[in-house]
Amino acid sequence: MRPVALIALALLAAAPLSAQGGAAQPGALRAPLSTRVVFSMPLAPPRVQGQPAPTPKNVSIEYGQPHARGRAVPTELNADGTVWRTGANSSTTLRTETALVIGGADVPAGNYSLYTIRQNGQYFLIINNNTGQWGTEYDATKDLVRVPLRMRQRSEVQESLQIVMVPADNQSARGVLSISWGRLELTADWSAK
């Protein structure tokens, strides 16, 4: 081969390597903008006198947790009528081994995707039967139910999205589902059936 062809071949071979590596740009973020979070809690059914203690059933919520990291977090999570994946990246997943009531709606044991929508200023939690998809792949025909959410403005800014099922007490399998980020908190009551 001629020397010019060898140099050209060497440059072509090295180009992908330099595009993938190299020094970080000044001011570039060095941490991910989201984290994968799994919230899990065992729910013990009520004990019947004279019977063995029932085995606790697990409920978990897995979601991509976006972080503000200097970005402005809007006080309203999404525009009116626009479905939000309620997290980052892949869809948020609710897995429950026991039937639940969320916001007055029956949710059988199973796996679900969670989305949020705001309509006419009211937020709703969408519990959807489709699971395992990327967060933006929403199919309304797979909705199990839409649950109205209570909304309040927090006094302090929350840096990272948080989704939790807060138990009312240590004795009962009921409480409040809370979705909060920035100054906005959305809640609905929940209980095990």
UniProtKB/TrEMBL annotation:
The keyword Signal applies. It comes from the Bacteria. Keywords: Signal. Residues 1-19 form the signal peptide. InterPro entries: DUF2911 (IPR021314). This is DUF2911 domain-containing protein.
